[in-house]
Amino acid sequence: MPEKGTPEYDWLYGGSSQKPPSDATQKVPTQGSGRGASQAQRPDETRVMPVARREARGSGGQPPGRPSTSSAAPPPRPEKKRRRLPRLRLGLIPLLLLLVLVYLAGVPLYHWTTLDEVDATPAGDRPGDQPGTNYLIVGSDKADDLTDEQREVLDTPERGGTNTDTIIVLHTGSGGRTMMSIPRDTLVEVPDGGTQMINAAFASGGAPLLVQRVEALTGIHIDHYVELGFGSVINTVDAFGGVQICPKQDMRDPRARLDIKKGCQEVDGLTALGYSRSRYVTALSDLDRVARQREVISAVGDEALSPWTFVNPVRYWRINDAASGAIRVDEEMNPLDLGRFALAMTGDTRTCTMPNLPAPSDPNRIIADPERAPALFDAIIEDAGVPGRACTPTGRARQ
């Protein structure tokens, strides 16, 4: 502790001396705020600094003593730029569409070049041109395109197609589409006299003679000829993955290699062929068979219209390849005509069997009904609506 009276003691506690030492801290008189107060300020007095704003205290604030300014607005957000696909990627879309169209058109055109052509123009007088288009569809026993396994199942040798059990006239036009079956046991007149089953014309004279017999019987001008073999039915159905048939009774026919139950069901190509060929199970034999043949053809047409046929390139190729494997067309048909034929077998089509009666000379043969058949023939010739009385599944009159 400093001793009393020493400068250190006086500095800490003050002394009796009235004169402060030269280095003592002196009290600065408070300046008045009134009008009489002196406005002069001592140069060394402590000044009150303005309080800095909160914004200026942080980083980026203004230094003390500078007049504060209003806080600056936040910088504008950068605009988000839309992502744009590269021009090259956008250009691929029309290119892909073009490739799809080329594929859809090119596949049938290629298979068109593999088709067999046949001269189907008959000799002699023919009916004149008629409105609409008439196709003669013939199912032959052509089996030379079957595999060994398929021949073994069908128990059939390799044949070139000399017999037919399917004769159908397909008409398209403004009056609608009509599919008319002509039973193979139909008796027709022959030029040298007498009668003959219509399918015998195909066996003896091929496509030209069969066309001549059909035109003479019906008066319908045949524009195009399409012949389908066993392989085209089997392979086309299998290419679709099967078709739906709806037998009205259980069917077991060893001759047709058929054994199926009643009701709608999906079947493969071999079963579909047997179903369309069977004639020994139902009461009306061949008349029931022609109705089943139209059922199979319509089922194939329904499958062809499925969008999956066109969006699946493998399926599309297989269908065209299978259909062209055992088909023959007339020499005047072009790819456009064949395309129209394929479309005509799809969608809403009126199906009939030629109106018929048992033949007076042989109850196992039939003849065209002289009263009802002309009405159906004339409707096709004139491209008009088919009368319901003349259009029945078996060709027999409704009771």
UniProtKB/TrEMBL annotation:
Chain intervals for the UniProt region annotation (Disordered): 1-83
Transmembrane annotation, as ranges: 90-112
Biased composition (Polar residues): 15-41
Cell envelope-related transcriptional attenuator domain: residues covered: 163-303
Origin: domain of life: Bacteria
Keywords: Membrane, Transmembrane, Transmembrane helix
Extent of Basic and acidic residues compositional bias: 42-57
InterPro entries with a match to the protein in the record: LytR/CpsA/Psr_CW_biosynth, LytR_CpsA_psr
Similarity comment: family membership: Belongs to the LytR/CpsA/Psr (LCP) family.
Listed PANTHER family: POLYISOPRENYL-TEICHOIC ACID--PEPTIDOGLYCAN TEICHOIC ACID TRANSFERASE TAGU
Descriptive protein name: Cell envelope-related transcriptional attenuator domain-containing protein
